[in-house]
Write a structure and sequence with these properties.
Helix content is 26%, strand content 23%. The protein has three helices and four strands, in the order E-E-E-E-H-H-H. The chain has helices spanning 56-59, 70-91, 104-107, and strands at residues 11-17, 23-28, 34-38, 41-48. It has a four-stranded mixed β-sheet, with no helix packed on it. The protein is elongated and about 95 Å long. The model has no long low-confidence stretch (mean pLDDT 79).
């Protein structure tokens, strides 16, 4: 390996899967805010949303993993947009006039002195 290219601050770090609680102890350079006690030692703790222990590809289970509720948020935005569009359409009906035809305001004679 080239000198000075690769990081040299590798240390033992615990990764915890938030779906099923599985923990992995490995070496990493990742910064961690939390710590965990494992086998009598303190290690930096990194919480992850999905790992090989909970990913459908590795577990063989077909399930929707949606931790942040992205699908629900998208559907809610879509429904709100549809309701806003319907409310706008109901509020102001379209008035169409034929080409060359004047509207009532344009056809009314002007009052004297205006």
């Amino acid at each position: 390996m080239k000198k000075g290219v690769h990081p040299d601050n590798y240390r033992p770090v615990v990764f915890q899967d938030s779906n099923d609680g599985t923990i992995f102890l490995t070496r990493s350079t990742v910064e961690a805010g939390d710590t965990i006690s494992l086998d009598g030692k303190e290690y930096p703790l990194v919480k992850i949303h999905i790992s090989s222990s909970s990913h459908p590809f590795f577990t063989g289970q077909e399930k929707l993993v949606d931790v942040e509720g992205r699908v629900d948020k998208f559907k809610a935005r879509q429904e709100a947009a549809r309701q806003a569009k319907e409310a706008k359409a109901a509020k102001k009906p379209k008035v169409r006039k034929a080409r060359g035809q004047k509207t009532e305001a344009e056809a009314a004679p002007k009052a004297a002195g205006s």
